[in-house]
């Protein structure tokens, strides 16, 4: 007995959180593979081992036939991630992650995040964790960005030399999760400088008491839209 | 620096519905002074989350700060009909701190205005 493909798709969709079952589906029939892939590659994570990216490129040598277009959440972690600028070219393998909605970049050096500029036009949530301040520029490359997480962004010599305020910035109407670890004076002014303004409806801020005025500025800037605020100040001296 | 004197001015955030304070040190004056700036008429919930266990000995000044906060939160409940929640952490092998937290915010707990929620030690 054969089932209509729509019914099979529905059955596979029910397994969207069952990785083992989805893998098993792939070996049942070729016709089951596309739908199982949709869920298997919905969340992709590259950690700091070079082998992850190499394995991906080896498994999918033709980027346009890779399952990257299924990926909704992409997480890249590493210092440095072995992703060359060439990978971000028009035909590079990172460029086919064009449907990513949730992008998480962490523990990256000054250049390793460059291939992710404007990676997907539909990114709505961006997490930058322990990245240099230069990574801040990437925010403006996602026009539909709503939610922003900034954790432990750190200044470099280059970042200290100034920042060219971008011409446009996303609407940022969702949530801001900010953990500054004493670097609020670098991060918050850049947020306030964004030309599109800030319209966060939710702010979660962990900061040092020394930066209270900056946090007040941030809250005031979002005052027309802010509905939920979580504050976690701590004492700078407690960290020394 | 005088941590207790730190105030985050929320007077312009007139659409605020939910406020949460994570509190790790041995002062709550900054919470009281910050709450005093609130002008939002939409406020629905205030949460206080204690990060870490409470100190065994509570100095007199801190006790007074807690009393002021307790009183202010009662006023908020009266004027805004908001829901108040206190989350506290109990470490492994520690006794339940519910009674301790209740004694720190006596008016709120006596009136039954606050939900005490046990958090998990990180």
Q: Would you give an account of this structure?
A:
The complex is a heterodimer of chains A (240) and B (122). Chain A contains 7 helices and 8 strands. By secondary structure, chain A is α/β, with parallel strands linked by helices. Chain A has an 8-stranded parallel beta sheet with strand order 1-2-3-4-5-6-7-8, covered by helices on one side. Chain A has 2 domains: 1-40; 42-239. Helix content of chain A is 25%, strand content 18%. Chain B has a domain at 17-26 and 43-94 and 104-122. Chain B has 4 helices and 4 strands. In chain B, strands 1-2-3-4 form a 4-stranded parallel beta sheet, covered by helices on one side. In chain B, helix 1 links the parallel strand 1 (18-23) and strand 2 (45-50). The radius of gyration of chain B is 14 Å and the shape is globular. The interface between A and B is medium-sized, with 23 and 24 residues.
Protein topology:
The complex is a heterodimer of chains A (240) and B (122).
Chain A: H1 5-14, H2 19-26, H3 33-40, E1 43-46, H4 50-59, E2 73-77, E3 102-106, E4 125-129, E5 147-151, H5 157-160, E6 175-179, H6 184-193, E7 202-208, H7 212-221, E8 228-234
Helix pairs in contact in A: 2-3, 6-7
Chain B: E1 18-23, H1 29-35, E2 45-50, H2 60-80, E3 83-90, H3 98-104, H4 106-110, E4 114-120
Parallel strand pairs in B: 1-2, 2-3, 3-4
Helix pairs in contact in B: 1-2
């Amino acid at each position: 007995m054969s089932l209509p493909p729509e019914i099979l798709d529905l059955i596979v969709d029910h397994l969207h959180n069952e990785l083992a079952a989805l893998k098993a589906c792939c070996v049942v029939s070729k016709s089951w593979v596309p739908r199982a892939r949709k869920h298997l590659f919905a969340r992709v994570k590259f950690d700091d081992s070079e082998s992850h990216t190499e394995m991906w490129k080896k498994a999918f040598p033709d980027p346009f036939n890779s399952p990257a277009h299924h990926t909704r959440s992409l997480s890249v972690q590493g210092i440095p991630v072995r992703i060359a600028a060439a990978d971000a070219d028009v035909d590079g393998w990172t460029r086919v992650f064009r449907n990513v909605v949730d992008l998480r970049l962490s523990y990256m050096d000054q250049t390793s995040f460059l291939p992710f500029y404007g990676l997907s036009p539909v990114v709505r949530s961006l997490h930058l964790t322990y990245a240099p301040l230069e990574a801040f520029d990437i925010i403006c490359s996602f026009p539909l960005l709503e939610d922003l997480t900034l954790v432990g962004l750190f200044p470099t010599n280059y970042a200290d030399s100034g920042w060219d305020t971008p011409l446009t910035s996303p609407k940022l109407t969702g949530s801001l999760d900010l953990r500054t670890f004493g670097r609020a004076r670098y991060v918050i002014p850049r947020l306030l400088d964004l030309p599109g303004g800030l319209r966060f409806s939710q702010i979660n801020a962990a900061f040092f008491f020394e930066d209270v005025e900056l946090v007040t500025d941030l809250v005031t800037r979002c005052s027309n839209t802010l509905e939920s605020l979580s504050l976690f100040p701590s004492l700078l001296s407690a960290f020394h | 620096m005088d941590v207790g004197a730190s105030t985050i001015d929320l007077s312009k955030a007139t659409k605020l519905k939910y406020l949460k304070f994570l509190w790790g040190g041995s002062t709550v004056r900054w919470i009281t002074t910050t709450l005093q700036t609130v002008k939002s008429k939409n406020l629905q919930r205030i949460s206080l989350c204690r990060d870490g266990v409470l100190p065994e000995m509570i100095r007199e000044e801190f006790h007074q700060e807690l009393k002021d906060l307790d009183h202010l939160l009662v006023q908020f409940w009266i004027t805004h009909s908001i829901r108040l929640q206190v989350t506290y952490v109990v470490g492994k092998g520690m006794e339940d701190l519910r009674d301790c937290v209740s004694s720190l915010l006596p008016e709120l707990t006596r009136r039954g205005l606050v939900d005490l929620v046990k958090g998990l030690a990180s």
